[in-house]
Amino acid sequence: MSLNPTDLFDVRSLLSDEERMVQDAVARFTDEKVLPIIGDCFDQGRFPRELVPEVASLGLLGSSLPEEYGCAGMSGVQYGLICQELERGDSGIRSFVSVQSSLCMYPIFAYGSEEQRREWLPRMAAGEVIGCFGLTEPHGGSDPANMKTSARRDGGDWVLNGAKMWITNGNLAQIAIVWAQTEDGIQGFIVPTDTPGFTAQEIHKKMSLRASVTSALFLDNVRIPDASRLPNVKGLKGPLGCLTQARYGITWGPIGAAIACYSEALEYSKERMLFNRPVAATQSAQIKLADMARRITLAQLLVLQLGRLKDAGKMVPSQVSLAKWNNCRMAIDIARECRDLLGGAGITTEHAAIRHALNLESVITYEGTETVHQLVIGREVTGINAF
């Protein structure tokens, strides 16, 4: 019996019927709607906003949140499979869903009031309201505690001042989840983007995540009522809790990117004739392809166990760090190796490898750089903080 080259250990057999149904539905969406247009979107630097209604209708926005808020109530493993299949299309599509779900809807659910949940979550699940997540600042990067954006009380209102950088969905969003320093520590605020003093400036000249909207946010005496503050969290644990949710999805997503590159390179190497034999008949190509299959298999097993831990309520952030570090490194190495196997053809966006390789330069950087996650694991195993 021959094995599936993209699932050598039959990981799919470990999924429930419901999990396979979700994966298959998102895979069809990616095959039918994303892949036919995504190369052109990347070339044009355009996010395919026309796909948002179908993404919403499939229940992919806030998919793990309860049904009472208009969400799908899926498991962590199902959310991971969603991310994997979307990123098989493009990291920009998965990033849109990650930000909406894990960085915007999740904090409203976890840290917001019941009124805030009822007001925002059903409309966000339906794709009627898009969110963005304002944490990273121009000077901050991997040090979110060094936050300059401030929020001060003024009667029953808050007045926000500052700037945020590298914000996915910034120019698409109707609300921003903004984290700011207050006299009581870091707190989160739901800021409608049409509030006076709030501006978003799209970042251009990107060579990565070109089919995604990335922005800088500026807050100049932005006044919002106290009802817009997320009341149930203070300190860095608020935004870091959101990042753990988003990083979890990112541990699955790059597997999809790697599978897309690997599948394409595998077929190309069988068809491409050099020196009177297919490239796939050479030892060097087979060693490369075998190593890709090995690394994809290990990543698949890693995230499935991580998802089972999440669904059992046993997942801890350092486990997410290990998986993000491993799987992003796996995917970017495979994308680059596939580009090489494709030869000159690999530099065009008619093939997937160069687009995924460029996108993964962002994925391996955002939500914690590779070095940050290495140091998280270093701290875990030694008990010593080297940050």
TrEMBL record:
It catalyses: glutaryl-CoA + oxidized [electron-transfer flavoprotein] + 2 H(+) = (2E)-butenoyl-CoA + reduced [electron-transfer flavoprotein] + CO2. PROSITE patterns: ACYL_COA_DH_2. Pathway: Amino-acid metabolism; tryptophan metabolism; Amino-acid metabolism; lysine degradation. Residues 16-128 form the Acyl-CoA dehydrogenase/oxidase N-terminal domain. Keywords: FAD, Flavoprotein, Oxidoreductase, Transit peptide. InterPro entries: Acyl-CoA_DH_CS, Acyl-CoA_Oxase/DH_mid-dom, Acyl-CoA_Oxase/DH_mid-dom_sf, AcylCo_DH-like_C, AcylCo_DH/oxidase_C, AcylCoA_DH/ox_N, AcylCoA_DH/ox_N_sf, AcylCoA_DH/oxidase_NM_dom_sf. It holds the Pfam family Acyl-CoA_dh_1. Residues 235-381 form the Acyl-CoA dehydrogenase/oxidase C-terminal domain. Its cofactor is FAD. The keyword Flavoprotein applies. GO terms for biological process: fatty acid beta-oxidation using acyl-CoA dehydrogenase; fatty-acyl-CoA biosynthetic process. Residues 132-222 form the Acyl-CoA oxidase/dehydrogenase middle domain. SUPFAM superfamilies: Acyl-CoA dehydrogenase C-terminal domain-like, Acyl-CoA dehydrogenase NM domain-like. Belongs to the acyl-CoA dehydrogenase family. This is glutaryl-CoA dehydrogenase (ETF). It comes from Pseudofulvimonas gallinarii.
